[in-house]
Write a structure and sequence with these properties.
four-stranded mixed β-sheet; six-stranded antiparallel β-sheet; 60s Ribosomal Protein L30, Chain: A; Protein Transport Mog1p, Chain A; alpha+beta
């Protein structure tokens, strides 16, 4: 079962600059991080994903030993997820690690993969459900995983390492580097966010239903005609095998538990409208809530909080 980390323990661990234990491995990030966190457990276990989500399960290998969980937040700049992952992958391979799994969002299993594997909670680690990369590797009795995603302004990197004693030396921050030359892209880039909802869904990317309006603390959609729901319903009804997961989000006002419940009610409300008003088959739509854990904007302003009160549609892999 995935470990649950107490948010208060997490905050207590936010101590950048603490000396790191000496060890054999030293990986280098392509840019200096703005924030970092490290949590080390001397006797623990980690379920290392070794395959993508398939047939309702995530294949893992349980590894016991000293587990170190780290996360960094980098200035996004011109960085892409692959430009961060590629040099880290090369460094692991150079040190004798065998790559077990190397996947991007859709191949990993999207939403199902994200919530079946261990992820440090916000604000330490942020995962865009429609855009992340994952890698797991092993070298004898040592293992490591990398999870990389981004927000509008930052790239987030998580590394979980496990071994019989001190884990591999954590990633060392460097001064900003010259952008790395990248190999040919292995997947098509996301279509421009120009309102072409169907094109993004067709390529497996999630979409934010930006025109939906929720009052703070309310699960009810404001009255109105929503173009995003019209387009989403048309996309679903064009092929009965298409399925989406509606993911509800809230701003950070109030408690986490109540906000997670509220966000699921918002997703369920959207599902109900798709079914009752547009005649979408309920089998094609699932709903889930994640509360304030994946903000897309600041919670310090009303405009930012309004943007965070949203529902996203994530297409199921076909």
């Amino acid at each position: 079962m995935t470990a649950r980390l107490c948010p208060f323990a997490l905050l207590a661990a936010l101590l950048p600059g603490v000396p790191r234990p000496a060890a054999a491995q030293d990986l280098t990030l392509p840019a200096a991080p703005r924030d970092s966190i490290v949590i080390t457990a001397e006797f623990d276990s980690y379920d290392l994903p070794v395959g993508g989500w398939k047939n309702g399960t995530l294949p893992v290998e349980r590894i016991e030993g000293m587990v170190q969980r780290r996360a960094w937040r980098l200035e996004a700049g011109d960085l892409t997820l692959l430009s961060v992952l590629a040099p880290l992958r090369e460094q692991l391979q150079a040190q004798g690690f065998d790559i077990l799994l190397d996947c991007e969002t859709r191949v990993c299993g999207g939403f199902d993969f994200r919530f079946a594997t261990e992820v440090l909670p916000e604000p330490a680690m942020h995962v865009d459900l429609g855009d992340f990369r994952f890698l797991s590797a092993r070298k004898g009795d040592r293992a490591a995983s990398l999870l990389i995603s981004r927000s509008a302004s930052s790239v987030f990197v998580q590394m979980i390492s496990v071994g019989p004693d001190a884990p591999p030396e954590p990633i060392a921050a460097t001064e900003p580097a010259v952008p790395l030359p990248l190999p040919s892209p292995v997947t098509a880039p996301a279509p421009a966010d120009t309102g072409d909802l169907a094109a993004r869904l067709d390529q497996g990317y999630g979409v934010v239903l930006d025109d939906l309006l929720f009052a703070s603390g309310s699960a009810a959609l404001a009255e109105g005609d929503y173009a995003s729901l019209t387009a989403l319903a048309a996309w679903l009804k064009a092929d009965p095998d298409r399925m989406v997961l509606l993911v509800g989000h809230t701003d950070a006002s109030g408690g986490v538990t109540s906000n997670v419940a509220l966000s699921e009610k918002r997703a369920q409300a959207v599902r109900g409208v798709l079914m009752s008003r547009f005649g979408v088959n309920g089998r094609q739509v699932q709903a889930q809530g994640v509360g304030p854990m994946a903000p897309r904007d600041t919670n310090a302003t009303e405009e930012g909080r309004r943007k965070n009160r949203r529902v996203e549609a994530i297409p199921a892999p076909t």
